[in-house]
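Look over this record before class:
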Amino acid sequence: MSLIDGIRKKASKLAKRIALPESNDARTLEALNYILNNKISRIVLIGKKTVLQKIKSKNLKDLELIDPEKYGQIEKLASEYYELRKHKGLTPEEAREAVTKDYITFGAMLVRQNLSDGFVAGANHTTPSIIRVALRCLPIDKNIGVVSGAFLMLVPNSSYGEKGVFVFADCGVNPAPDSRQLAGIAASSATFFKKLVDKTPRVAFLSYSTKGSAEGPLVDKIKDAVSRAKEISPGLLVDGEFQIDSAIVPEVAKIKCPGSDVGGKANVLIFPDLNSGNIAYKLTQRLAKARAIGPVLLGFEKAASDLSRGCDSEDIVNAVAITAIRA
């Protein structure tokens, strides 16, 4: 059984309720039919009643369709959203308009109030817009203290990482994280890897230097991040700073960082900034024909996943399964 098949099977046993706000997107509806037919998750679809005409699955018992304009608890959602945003000058009328008309906000508020276990969106919304809604509506995990965007990377025919399986972070949120933020990103990424892959995470902080081969403030930041990560997550296998070959290639690690529990065996890669993380995942995706699943939004107390606007229906199915497991 492939990792993806295993993730979908695990999700199906949990019967979580995942909100899909983009009911006007054909890929979302195609994914919805597959999810329902294969009982991967229960779905809260946000939209008008007319969308039911486009649903081909006969398994409607796992589907709940909600039209925000006709939702019985809309005032409760609007009131809480107003309390969250009034310090930014939002009026009660604007709050009600937001949760009624913006399906992404409505879906995130369902998750906040435990009326849904997680949400998946982004097929026809930008990543910044999805992250903004999540930051406005979902509580941040105080132990982590930072939100990040991680990808589950599946590299075919690879012996590196966990037989070609990696988590890359942060690839979607923080342009220039400081050492404290990098440590939080590492902790949440390791938890994500363990929950999905069920293997021991080995976390490598990446740099242009390996164990003091170069000097400078950027290297110092990574060294500090390693120390902070060990404080946040005692017992976590984490090390750095590493160049990428030292992190994942055993033969190189024996030369550059002998004795490291992570060097040459890393499966969770923490990039020093958003430039490097975003470039790396897309380069791996294209050159190695890797499957990139995400970005999964980490650091919240609730589960949420973003989607690339170039995603296909299979990407949405996988995002729903992963979100269900994380929930």
